[in-house]
Amino acid sequence: MDAYSRFHAATTRLREVADLQSVTPETGACACCGRPWASVEDSALAIPYVYGSGFAKQYLCTTCYSPKIGSFDELGIGSRRGPNKIPVPVMLGMMTGCGAVITSSNQLFLAVNEGFRLRVEDGALAAKGRVYRTDPLSLLMALYSDGRLGDPKEGFVYISNFGRKSLVLMGALRMTTDLRELWDNSDTGASCTDLSALLDVARWARENDHVTQAQKSGFWQPITTAARGKLDQDALTRWLAKTPNARELVHRLPSDPHDRLGLHKKMEKILQAAQ
Ligand SMILES: [Zn+2]
Questions:
Q1: Could you tell me the distance, in angstroms and rounded to a whole number, from the CA of residue 45 to the centre of ligand 1?
Q2: Is residue 88 domain-shared with residue 162, that is, in the same domain?
Q3: CA angle, residues 52, 53, 57, in degrees to nearest 5
Q4: Which of 52, 174, 199, 203 is the most exposed place for a label (fewest CB within 10 A)?
């Protein structure tokens, strides 16, 4: 399976309860993911979609369209509009600041912020215990720690932010099969993080009694300063001298400087999820 087939399987209920008007497409491929109609999950079915007035009609595959499906049953009431307070269902593609994990058995788990927790708590997904008031990386770590994620090699999908541009999210959706290359999907596209290195750093913190320090930005300062391209050799030398097993820690750090920024925040999520 790939990212799209997992996303499709995990969102089956959204499409079942929605009365989708699918048509035979007039184009060769989905306007979002670019896959030919013969190779999408609901083969040869397309949903006509117009971004806004003045835009041409596009055809989306049912998978790419799924974040745009509002569902009272699964996700709950998003808001109430107008003087008559007409309820509007939550759709995945409007959950700004919220993320998700789709496990290797195609189960959808949501990581929601406080605002969305209140909105989605009446939905069937919350009733199944698949909605967590946490951030997406903490959710991923919790599912990884207790085994619900499944074997990472089987593939899972990690979404750090649905945002509001679901076509950007779905257009670049990537599946993770190796924790050294965690594909972080969001409405700004997909990026890659070495989660395996971060787990190694967390292990170093536990082994060297540095769990608290590793969650403080001050502790990492010489490393993050260097990652920004401003090496302070004296500060780094002092840091190496006072940090236990510092050489081993440096060896475990992710090699990409971008992955070395915000280390304390990442450690906070990883170390607290594993406790
Ligand atoms: Zn598509």
A1: 10
A2: yes
A3: 70
A4: 52
